[in-house]
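Quick one, tokens below. Sequence please?
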């Protein structure tokens, strides 16, 4: 059932082009410039009149929520807050009937996320679920929702669930933007066309595998890693670090690149590998100067760059090239090499990739 792959995680990484396609199939109509999503259409007034969107989730799903914050605020101009479900539910949060809560969960069974939903409903908010497992508790407990259609995810470390969550959240934002008249027909068409180009681009990203494997062999014994990104790639940095921690047991931290100088830069010396996401669209010049700062402290730089980049190449120890896309869809692309990096490092360290110690696929206890 691993389909010839050594691990479920690797299989699921490679399934992403199809999983993303399955997620938007039937929902994107390029020729008409239309997005069809019943759960959104049936509640369109309620959703577009929200004064605030609160996203609740845990772990990797929380990272998808952070990406959604950027997309939603960019496209529909509704303020978004992203909350760890466990903090939200115990904080006596301010929730009103004018709020829309979006709960994101692969399994649909995460106890804290489920409890956060119940609390939000009690306070009168409208709750929308983004789940992968059909008929799961969270899918049933929410007022409406949209499934990710990623297919079963067996590896404990979440991969295709993450990229399909981002896909579905992008569609939701586009649908709402379309309804609110916030995108011109041509902008919408461009977005849809680019979304349809994503599976092939993810496929292209997967081709960096041998190169990433080589990089992995050089740094597999490092006790620490830093991951840096800005804007849409900041959550990707967090997710890259989480993936490495959970399956290879290497300590890793993700930071917004500009936060470096407020503390973490003190950690940097010639032994520290720093993974920097430095793609062309989105604060490229700023990231370049962040790379310079790290370089002058002799860190080892592993940079994820847009195909054909020359400037980063001059400074970085290793570059991993990925295809260009719209800034808002970048996380779907830049995440892929980071998944592969953590996978190869974990395998080289002889870790149990699919079932890392101390972790369970769904966390049904608080
Ligand atoms: C990370 C991972 C966990 C889950 C988290 C939430 O790879 O798998 O961090 O993302 O436990 O799980 P769901 O999405 O099922 O609510």
């Amino acid at each position: 059932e691993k389909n010839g792959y050594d691990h479920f995680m690797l299989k699921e990484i490679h399934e992403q082009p199809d999983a993303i396609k399955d997620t938007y199939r039937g929902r994107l109509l390029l020729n008409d410039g239309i997005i069809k999503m019943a759960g959104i259409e049936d509640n369109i007034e309620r959703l577009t009149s929200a004064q605030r969107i609160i996203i609740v989730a845990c772990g990797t799903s929380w990272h998808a929520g952070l990406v959604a914050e950027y997309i939603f605020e960019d496209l529909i101009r509704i303020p978004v807050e992203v909350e760890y479900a466990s903090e939200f539910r115990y904080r006596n949060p301010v929730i009103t009937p004018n709020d829309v809560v979006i709960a994101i969960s692969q399994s649909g069974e995460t106890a804290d996320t489920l409890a956060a939903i119940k609390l939000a409903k009690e306070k009168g908010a409208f709750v929308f679920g983004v789940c992968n497992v059909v008929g799961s508790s969270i899918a049933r407990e929410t007022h409406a929702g949209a499934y990710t259609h990623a297919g079963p995810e067996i590896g404990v470390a979440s991969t295709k669930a993450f990229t399909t969550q981002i896909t579905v959240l992008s569609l939701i934002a586009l649908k709402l933007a379309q309804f609110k008249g916030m995108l011109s027909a041509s902008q919408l068409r461009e977005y849809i066309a680019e979304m349809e180009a994503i599976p092939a681009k993810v496929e292209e990203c997967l081709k960096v595998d041998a190169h990433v494997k080589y990089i992995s062999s050089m740094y597999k014994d490092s006790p620490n890693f830093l991951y840096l990104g800005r804007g849409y790639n900041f959550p990707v940095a967090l997710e890259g670090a989480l993936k490495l921690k959970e399956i290879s047991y290497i300590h890793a931290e993700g930071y917004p690149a500009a936060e470096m100088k407020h503390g973490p830069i003190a950690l940097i010396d010639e032994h520290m590998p720093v993974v920097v996401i430095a793609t062309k669209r989105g604060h490229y010049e700023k990231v370049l100067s962040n790379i310079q700062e790290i370089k002058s402290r002799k860190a080892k730089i592993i940079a994820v760059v847009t195909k054909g980049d020359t400037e980063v190449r001059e400074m970085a120890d290793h570059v991993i090239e990925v295809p260009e896309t719209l800034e808002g869809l970048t996380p779907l692309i830049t995440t892929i090499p980071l998944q592969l990096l953590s996978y190869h490092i974990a395998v080289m360290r002889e870790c149990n990739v699919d079932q890392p110690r101390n972790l369970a696929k769904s966390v049904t206890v608080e």
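The radius of gyration is 20 Å. The chain has a mean pLDDT of 96.
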